[in-house]
Amino acid sequence: MRTDRGDLPVKSPSSTSPGPPKNTDAFPALASAASHQPQRNRKGEKNWNPVRSLCQCLPLLIKGEVAVRAPHASQVSLSTPVARRAVRGGQRARTATVPYGRERGRRKREEERAGCEMAATGLGVKAAPFTYAAHALAAAAAVLVLVWCVHFRGGLALEAQNKNLIFNVHPVLMLIGYIILGSEAIMIYKVFPKLNHDTAKLTHLILHAIATVLGAFGIYCAFKFHNDSGIANLYSLHSWLGIGTISLYGIQWVFGFVTFFFPGAAPSVRRSALPWHALFGLFVYVLALATAELGFLEKLTFLESGGLDKYGAEAFLVNFTALVVVLFGASVVVAAVAPVHDEAPQGYESIPVS
Ligand code: HEM
Ligand code: HEM
Fold first, then answer.
1. Which one of 17, 31, 234, 313 has the largest count of C-beta atoms within 10 Å of its C-beta?
2. For the whole model, what pTM was predicted?
3. By three-state DSSP, how is residue 172 classified?
4. Molecular function (GO) terms listed (predicted)?
């Protein structure tokens, strides 16, 4: 089976050798990420992975500690005091039992699990719970937006005397058709980790294609509402971001299709394109979430300046829906960056525990 990760030294959890780890060079990723040098895999080939590098450094800097240890501080040019402290901690821990205070047991357990896969190391969470949360929040968001547009705003229509009904199709399609379907496409590798990779890829690309088409149709409905009501087009930040988002989404899809599906790039190209694909995909996804938030804000502001009670049930419902969408998006992003398993899955040995 062709792998999109190319010849990266991927090690399945089951292939992790038992006993004390032999690898003393467990941290090229951290070292190179921190010093902005290209990562090298075990064969010494350049193999810089922006998502992994970014995510390795972020938890380190945020938590003020490092769960992976560099063999020699001199190999790591870390510029912040927090990071230097963390590396010193790592060196001590290689040679002696370090008293961690009250949290010693918990940290030790964490370190046992630590590998160089960013999420397994830095976040210490698995994807599964976040996919469950995302599904529940997606269902809630879908129900809320339908209640708003159907119950409070009078329903949905593609042709109607009341042009507001045409507008109502816009938020419904943008949220349920575009954002929720796009999220499911992103999470597919984590929701069905045992699915055959080619099937998962096909589902990923089909769901993204449906999301893009429904999103484009939702935007068409907003334009139709404007044109039928004699309102100017593309005057707001929301609309500019909206056009930008759907265009980038389309570009991402075409690049993804050509690189990973048909005709499919050479393994080395796929290998280097994959982290950029995931990074750019998440960027476009977050942009879509931000655009939707602006849309809710804008519509509610229009309604409130038209007399809607600022503390009424409808205003509360719209704000609450937007909040649920934020939580939903956060769960999807964590599910995407967290690993399926919490073992070190990227071919690095686990940390020696003294
Ligand atoms: C990612 C999701 C979304 C995208 C890509 C998007 C995109 C767009 C675009 C391109 C327009 C311009 C139409 C025109 O100028 O004729 C527009 C209009 C509008 N959208 Fe959205 N939209 C999204 C979600 C939402 C949501 C969830 C709402 C909530 C109600 C909303 C509310 C509005 C409103 C009120 C307008 C008319 C005012 C304006 O042009 O800014 N949008 N949207
Ligand atoms: C707008 C469309 C797309 C977006 C936003 C997108 C986004 C993403 C994201 C965020 C990931 C990382 C998921 C994770 O790590 O769990 C990913 C992985 C991937 N995507 Fe896409 N994608 C898109 C289209 C495509 C297309 C058309 C293909 C063609 C087959 C494709 C192939 C892949 C592959 C092979 C992976 C790697 C899965 C793995 O970890 O093995 N994507 N995509």
1. 31
2. 0.75
3. helix
4. metal ion binding; oxidoreductase activity
